[in-house]
Design a protein that fits this description.
Largest sheet: none
Distance between the termini: 20 Å
Order of helices and strands: HHHHHH
Number of strands: 0
Number of helices: 6
Radius of gyration: 18 Å
Structural class: mainly alpha
């Protein structure tokens, strides 16, 4: 994505990727379900459930922007560390209708080690 963004522009690469992904997902939906009704179901769902799609666009945009600047390894390491950190918060508070999961010292230590590893990948 970083190379694509460098070639055509970050926002252009993000828009192209979102469109291509939507088209491919539509084809898969049509083949698997023999219907495009899933789109209507999505529109009828509570708006907060759309957050996953919005965050997906944010993640792809961040990868497109960060990859050429800090390298692929650092980009992926920071992405994984950030996702695990966010997951612990979501688990802790039971957001989005999931069961609450306690924050334990081993979890905190694992995330801290992951964050340290991600930070170390920033060094070239």
């Amino acid at each position: 994505m970083g190379a694509f963004g460098n070639r055509i522009g970050t926002l252009e690469a993000l828009a192209f990727t979102a469109l291509a992904g939507a088209l491919l997902a539509g084809v898969v939906l049509l083949v698997a379900r023999r219907s495009l009704g899933g789109y209507a179901d999505g529109l009828a769902a509570p708006r907060w459930l759309w957050l996953g799609a919005l965050l997906g666009v944010f993640v792809v945009g961040a990868i497109t922007l960060a990859g050429p600047r800090i390298g692929t390894t650092a980009t992926v390491a920071l992405l994984i560390a950030g996702q695990l950190g966010a997951a612990v918060v979501i688990d802790r508070f039971g957001w989005f209708g999931i069961e609450r999961v306690a924050v334990t010292w081993p979890r905190v230590a694992g995330i801290a080690l992951l964050a340290a590893g991600a930070f170390l990948t920033l060094r070239r």
